[in-house]
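Message: Just now I want nothing more than another pair of eyes on a protein record. I am handing you a single protein, as its sequence and its fold in token form. As I understand it, each token names a local backbone shape. Take your time, and here it is.
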Amino acid sequence: MDTDSWQIVRNRFHTYGSPVSVAKMERVFDLLDLPPRARVLDVGCGKGEALIRLVERFEVRAVGVDPSPVLLLARDAATQRVSEGDVTWHGCGVDELDLEDEAFDLTICMGSHHAFGSYEDMLDAMIRLTRPGGALLVGEGFWQQPPPQAYLEALGTPSFHQNSHAGNLDAAEERGLWPVYSVVSSRDEWDEFEWLYQYAMNRHAREHGLSVEQEHEVAARRRFVAAQQRWGRDAMGFAVYLFRTPSAS
């Protein structure tokens, strides 16, 4: 099995590629107030579940962008659930696309700010792409408390930086965005998110066995989960933010 196929295996049982429940996402969708045929962009769309559900609920015209092979799962799901042409998928980086400024009623970036650079870079880019009075739906990590250095070293990122929850909101308001709603992931949601990777790998191993390369990745994943359970549940947070851009004057 190649690396691309292995990424699909790892994500097999996740609905969303972030530690947030289906119920919480549905509540956020309830508050979007999108008109039919609204234009929606999702950068780092992964399996495409958010876009597909928005097409089903609001009949939006959607664009999904993700260089990951997991995008193949999005294409397959869309074929089964929405009409051809309702979603346009781009298997590349967002920087490879020529997207028009203020072209979208809603822009989404869930746990994928690295597609633009920093969290702040992501906000700047999404504001540019969103029409005046439009919405941004952002999923972003934050520190609940200063992380132990042992945790950062276990993650392999000893100098990893992210804001607090309040810092994420401040960065948005500093750019003229209006925070209108937010939900924060619970410990149960984090556990579900992390353990489903473990479950998917274990099930694949039982059904098909593992290559030497996959065994190394499974071992690394076990170390990651151990660090998450020991330190991450107290230090790492995740929130979904709904922001509005200022209306045109």
Notes: The mean pLDDT is 94. Residues 45 and 142 are 20 Å apart (CA to CA). Residues 16-148+159-185+236-244 form a domain with the Rossmann fold fold (CATH 3.40.50.150). The two ends are 55 Å apart (CA to CA).
